[in-house]
Prior knowledge:
Helix content is 38%, strand content 23%. It has helices at residues 19-32, 48-60, 66-84, 92-105, 112-120, 122-135, 159-174, 201-212, 245-254, 264-269, 322-334, 357-367, 389-396; strands at residues 7-11, 38-42, 138-139, 179-182, 185-187, 193-195, 216-221, 242-244, 274-278, 287-290, 300-314, 339-344, 348-354, 371-385, 401-406, 410-415. The strands form three sheets. Strands 3-4-2-1-7-9-10-8 form an eight-stranded mixed sheet. The longest helix has 19 residues, at 66-84. Adenosine-5'-diphosphate binds at residues 12-15, 43, 199, 221-223, 226-227, 229-230, 232, 256-258. This is Aspartokinase. Keywords: Amino-acid biosynthesis, ATP-binding, Kinase, Nucleotide-binding, Transferase.
Amino acid sequence: MAAHSPLVYKFGGASVKDAAAILNLKHIVETTAAGRPLLVVVSAMGKTTNALEELFDLAHRGQPYDAPLGALHDFHAAAAEALAGPGAAPGPWQQTLQDLREQLADVNPDHYDRQYDQLVSYGELLASQLVAQALGAQWLDCRPLVRTDRTWREGRVDWPATERLVRAALPPLLAQGPVVTQGFVGGTAGGLTTTLGREGSDYSAAIFAYCLHAESVTIWKDVAGLLSADPKIFPDAVRYPEISYQETIEMAYYGASVIHPKTLKPLAERGIPLRVRSFVDPGAPGTLIHDCQHPALAPAFIRKTGQCLLSFESKDFAFISEENLEVIFGALAQARLKINLMQNSAISFSVCTDFSERRVQLLLGLLAGQFRVHYNDDLTLFTIKNYDAPSVARLTEGRELLLEQRTRSTFQFVCR
Ligand SMILES: Nc1ncnc2c1ncn2[C@@H]1O[C@H](COP(=O)(O)OP(=O)(O)O)[C@@H](O)[C@H]1O
Ligand SMILES: N[C@@H](CC(=O)OP(=O)(O)O)C(=O)O
């Protein structure tokens, strides 16, 4: 690895949730990356993306939104004032908020997803401006660099274009000092903003790291590292000191929300290590994710809520055939419903997906002519990786299992 390969640090919503958190970020940068070329990728402050989703939804429905917009302004103003002191010169975030105000006023009833991206991306713009100012670092608008197609709300990255653009723009800036940019956000060739999917800032960090051949990526979290489960649900979760890309990809895919599932592939492709470290205890070792062999890990528990179990039966009681499956998969793709688990019997096919009322209704419309479709929502999908008898007993006890599946290493079930 070349001595001048940059480090990429990603700070999520919790690590930039207010002025004190941003000062803690500054301390981490100054004590752990001094003198190193450093790209800082930040998410929106705290729950700002949720607030922007609600704001956009109100504007799209033609409802008043002055109060939540005022709250968003006051929240960022309070952080800016605490960082810069009262009476400080206006920061660039104020113009950004004015731009948001104008764009909200222009929202029209068409093209929900496209307009969503133009508006909901403001959280990262605002946060990155405050963080750049606090660090005295360069601010970079990532939208002209992270090139995606026009798949709104889940932009697909154009890797060759992004690599070319990032490699042309970033190294001269990094040579001058730290650079702060946005996670979660990209842009089309035509200059429109896209987003990469909720919680997609980890993925942004990986995109930049891939393009820059970074030395490593560190994602700073409110937990000690990658644990065997979400400690908020399983307080006895243990930290994995070291884990392979493959194990981590599977955990993220099954729903371990600590890492966005798309993050690992670009890093694994270029052999770039990913560290998960605690912004509460920056000196602690955290977790190192890289290309390694390790002994069997403690069973990992993963819970994915908001699930929907759909079952399809052909109306003429015909067996579920390849032709039927082709139609069902085509409709699922068209409705943009992702399959988390699937199973078939002779005349019925079941899939577990993330629930979205709008998408499920679209699916029903597409398939109602050919299939009898039933669904249950408000379900939970549990996965145990590296399961054993005690871990299965612990999780299944007292639960009504609607669907269950196991491979040699993974046990999954859907329940109410
Ligand atoms: N296996 C796991 N290991 C560690 N944390 C986990 C795991 N699964 C879920 N989490 C949750 O992920 C949270 C951190 O991720 P997230 O909230 O997305 O961070 P941020 O938005 O600040 O980047 C933790 O607070 C924890 O509750
Ligand atoms: N702010 C975006 C993107 C993101 O990744 O956030 P976080 O790093 O806080 O999960 C979201 O909430 O979806």
